[in-house]
Amino acid sequence: MVRLFGPLVGLFFAVALLWSFGNGAYSAITEPAAPTAEHEFHLHPKDVKFASDGVFGKYDKQQLQRGFQVYKEVCATCHSLKHVAFRDLADLGYSEGEVKAIAKQWGTKQPTFDPKSGERAERDNIASDYIPTVYYAGQGVPPDLSLIAKARHNGGAYVYSLLTGYQEQPAELLKKFPDSKTPDGLYYNPYFANLNLAMPAPIASDDQVAYSDGTKATVDQMSQDVSAFLMWTAEPKADKRKQTGWAVLGFLLAATVLAYLAKKNVWADKH
Amino acid sequence: MSFPWAKEYKPAIGLTQWLDEKLPLPRFVYNAVGAGYPVPRNLNYMWNFGVLAGFCLMLQIITGVILAMHYAPNALVAFDSTEHIMRDVNWGWMMRYAHANGASAFFVVVYLHIFRGFFYSSYKAPREMIWLLGVVIFLLMMATAFMGYVLPWGQMSFWGAKVITGLFGAIPVVGEPLQIWLLGGFAPDNAALNRFFSLHFLLPFVIAGVIILHIWALHIPGSSNPTGVEVKAESDTVPFHPYYTAKDGFGLGVFLLIYCAILFFAPNALGHPDNYIPANPLSTPAHIVPEWYFWPFYAILRAFTYDFFFIPAKLMGVLAMFGSILVWFFLPWLDTSPVRSGHYRPLFRKFFWFGLIPTMAILFYCGGAPAEEPFVMLSQLASLYYFAHFLIILPLVSSIEKPEPLPFSITEAVLGKDESAVLNANPTAA
User: Fold this and answer.
1) Which CATH superfamily is domain B49-221+248-288 in?
2) Model confidence pLDDT, tens digit, residues A95-120
3) A16, B311: Cβ pair inside 8 Å?
4) Which among A2, A88, A152 is the nearest to B330, CB-wise?
5) What's the ipTM?
6) How many CA atoms lie within 13 A of B349 on its CB side?
7) Which residue, A57, B89, B337, B339, could crosslink A52 as a Cys pair with Cβ 3.0–4.6 Å?
8) pTM to 2 decimals?
């Protein structure tokens, strides 16, 4: 039965696939897929190095503090960071007092609700609070940035490239795709998936942020710093993960060598 | 069952003697994976993957149970509770990465286990039942992995759930009501997430049960081996313990080194970035792809792009995708060659290495690629070969192929000579 019906079923699928293949090949020749502006002008992230790259990489805490400052003074106007609590900032090297002060002075306050009076009010943030959500009324939907560096391919470099990638729409693009002019209210950026986004270049000029550690706040420096910071918010345990990894691999390597010797010993008389 | 020369369990101390009378559990273990189970002496490293698969299941159950203590299966908070595990739970990041990459490791190991079976025809009599149960385990694994991937409730979770449950909608007449019933709604939402969580917790224990049957069925004929020649005498076997416990121990070490290297240094390499975006029913990702271990089957699903007579393309795709695994159930009867091992089957071997393996590689690549040319046409040709290989080529090859001579016994294959073969060849000389 199997030997009779098996080949028949096989032929059935084979013919159906040939049918799809033939039709597909025919339409691929007669009406080839039209090129799109996204397909031709979208760029992969720039090649940029971070201290945390690689298996030995560690976050540069000084850079993360600078990046946090850029987030606080620039990004936080529109973008939330809801998975990060103020207490987490201690990982960037801030003392307990500094963390408390950052929480207390944070612009967006914690909403409160009194169930007895029904009154809604606000209070200052405390260290155990998560960074409060930002409500944004303008055009577009600014995504929460907590995980952005893991939610894009090569996320750290992506954020950096996006921040430094704003430019005039190339004349070549408009010549080739006259319908693809960047709509009003959107901004051209080849690192963004569909080339046009609602966010204007957020880091536009040098010294937009005044760094306290003496680093020159160039557009490139600020963009790198905030990208590094967002890599940390996406993966705050990366340093601990790599550190643990080396210990685990070291142990496993020793155990595997022993296991190999044990195996050799046991099998010595059987080969 | 066992061979007559299998060592018998002898409880040494009072406690084990007492236990052996009341509940002979140590005897059971001794006969299953101890010195009481004689195993062919010539197993190569491809025979390590059964034990490794069992290890992966335990790893998944342990990490999974711990994750379930912190996870909340509710569409409103599922994504955030996953991040809570990653950030606030002590070693939660390790548990989650171990579980997510553990699923990948489980599939790597099981694919190697299955392809070992293909090459050495481990499915042939008298081991058909082991094979059938193995395919059942694989199907259960796929269901479990799919539902597990939905739980973090990211973009790929949501859209993956929508695409895969949408497959049921392709079934004529009952499809759409069936899909709504399975999801508990018109699209994946809280009802679906809750039942997926419940089933994702249940199915691994069902898998564990079928694995017990798989091993039970294995112990009736005993393990297969790379020559495909059955065990004839005691010299062909070694006791499982210490010989294969030692060999599996080394294999486990190598496996853990690779697994932990990925877990600790590239934990997101096998995942999709979109799953770090919370599920949004109003925003469809540019490319919806399942996890890598489903790519070959996803390629087969998408290979059918035109209606075939009265059968819609989508239904053809669904039939072919399920058919591509169901066909494995019939392998013991499609491959009729009396020789098991691919080592002694010249024609079969060619089709395996130059047909099936490249085909799987192409399907794998195309399944992860966007549904554009040339990937669609490539996956159509590869799917065509896939079905032809199992349903047409295998039966044909087994009937026309002239196998190479087999060794007299496993012992001869290992040592180059077998005393009992010499005795058998010259019965008068004895």
Assistant:
1) Cytochrome Bc1 Complex; Chain C (1.20.810.10)
2) 999 999 999 999 999 999 999 999 99
3) yes
4) A2
5) 0.94
6) 11
7) A57
8) 0.95
